[in-house]
Amino acid sequence: MVTIPPQPWPTGLAEAVEPLVLRVLAPNPSPYTFTGTQTYVVGDPRGPDCAVIDPGPNEPEHIAAIIAAAAGRTILAIMCTHTHRDHSPAAAPLAELTGAPIVGCAPLVLQVDGPRSDEAFDPTYAPDRVLVDGEGMRGTGWTLTAVATPGHTSNHLCFALEESGALFTGDHVMGWSTSVVIPPDGDMGDYMASLEKLMARDDVRYHSAHGAAIEKPRQLVRGMIGHRRQREAQILRLLGETARPVSGFIPDMYKGLDPRLIPAAEMSVTAHLIDLEKRGAVRRDGEVWRVV
């Protein structure tokens, strides 16, 4: 189990992670966000403009820290990878304070939102411009291009910084843990396809919304694909022993799991089962799953 490093964390500080990128940590640590959500300010620190990626939760001190990191530069775009509440709620107040447009993923509000283990969706998110795969934003000395990566959520985007080869991966690939895929919006088949899509790219590093920068991105993605395939094989093996409900997988698949993360593990197993069902490998009878 991954543990959160001891405090102090650099909450609210503008850290230079590469020449065109500052990172600002939001004050929202949790078992699902690690030390907090990381907002990125992209652009030459001495230049006239910048972009903000994943403005984070609507916390006044975090919004003030983002504005301080911009250091007088014009914010040309507030760019959101997806609309979980630890990523996009600060977009509206930041736009109101700076006049910057909100650009990036499509809005998404689930009509059915039962008990969840991840952050709920942000119903306040209202973009001025939605980016599709390959579209982007340009400023003075920086270019950000959208890379569609559905799976963690159906509206998830990554953003490629063309000048440095970095990719801002939001929650699709994180620097501390695997992403949680939660139906009905999260889709394991889409998630795996998006990982394969990143494997075909030549990004030199990833900056995720949670955790350290990833300096060997393709190696990590290869491992993530292998991990998910192992989980799938584990599910099929356990179903081969006996039919069971989702809760019946957890003791065998997640030994020593923090009890607070059991709902997330159950939803991840559910996402795998739904994907296997679509492929004709398993079926369900009420709440019990069995092999076909």
UniProtKB/TrEMBL annotation:
<keyword id="KW-0378">Hydrolase</keyword>
<dbReference type="InterPro" id="IPR036866">
    <property type="entry name" value="RibonucZ/Hydroxyglut_hydro"/>
</dbReference>
<protein>
    <submittedName>
        <fullName>Glyoxylase-like metal-dependent hydrolase (Beta-lactamase superfamily II)</fullName>
    </submittedName>
</protein>
<dbReference type="InterPro" id="IPR050662">
    <property type="entry name" value="Sec-metab_biosynth-thioest"/>
</dbReference>
<dbReference type="Pfam" id="PF17778">
    <property type="entry name" value="WHD_BLACT"/>
</dbReference>
<feature type="domain" description="Metallo-beta-lactamase">
    <location>
        <begin position="36"/>
        <end position="210"/>
    </location>
</feature>
<dbReference type="Pfam" id="PF00753">
    <property type="entry name" value="Lactamase_B"/>
</dbReference>
<dbReference type="InterPro" id="IPR041516">
    <property type="entry name" value="LACTB2_WH"/>
</dbReference>
<dbReference type="InterPro" id="IPR036388">
    <property type="entry name" value="WH-like_DNA-bd_sf"/>
</dbReference>
<dbReference type="GO" id="GO:0016787">
    <property type="term" value="F:hydrolase activity"/>
</dbReference>
<dbReference type="InterPro" id="IPR001279">
    <property type="entry name" value="Metallo-B-lactamas"/>
</dbReference>
